[in-house]
Amino acid sequence: MTLASSYAGKSLESALLTNEIEETQKEIIFRMGEIGESRSKETGNHVKRVAEYSYILALGLGMSQEEAELLKMASPMHDIGKVAIPDAVLNKPGKLTDEEFKLMQNHTLIGYNLLKNSTRHILKTAAVVAHEHHEKWNGRGYPRGIQGEEIHIYGRITAIADVFDALGSERVYKKAWELDRILQLFQEERGQHFDPDVVDAFFKQLPAILKVREEYSDVALS
């Protein structure tokens, strides 16, 4: 074996190992996201749909393929903080009390604190998403009550992806909404709950979003 071929072989081996590590990281992140959702009896398809919606919206807003892929990989961790919320609160069939709702809000801070010290780009992005996906454009969200472009674009995108999927899915505390009702709400909440530009991107990309929803539809919840 020549020196050149030896180097080439090692280079290929190194590239394959690096790719395997990256794919393993992605798989772990996605599975952790599923664990967070399963605590509240939601299916793994919720995180798949939120990831795909976030990717579609990111591209629709002009982000690069690389950045859209990054958000797609990180967004499944948006609710990872739910792992620390009691079952009695997560799975309560009725309306939460004020105290219970404050406890539920803590999942954003818990998720952020779990992820914020990572040096990995995907996990740092996931920390932002976990922290800010319940903030609102008008400043009336949580946990910090920041508004407008103070909210990271990743949080603004995931907010719409998450709400769209949550409203359209059956939960222990509600029935799934009809599509027309969801779309009407998004129009009403443009510039209130949601970033107007992201709402506009959502409506432009609606055919692709609905295709994802159909592809990853849930089996009826028990």
Number of domains: 1
CATH topology: Hypothetical protein af1432
Question: So what's the CATH class?
Answer: Mainly Alpha
Number of helices: 10
Which stretches are poorly predicted, pLDDT < 50 over at least 5 residues? none
Describe this structure in words.
The protein has 222 residues and is mainly α. Helix content is 64%, strand content 0%. Helix 1 crosses helix 2 and helix 2 crosses helix 7. The mean pLDDT is 87. It comes from Paenibacillus roseopurpureus.
Concise structural overview:
The protein is mainly alpha-helical and 222 residues long. It has helices at 3-38, 44-60, 65-74, 87-90, 98-115, 121-132, 153-167, 179-188, 196-204, 206-215.
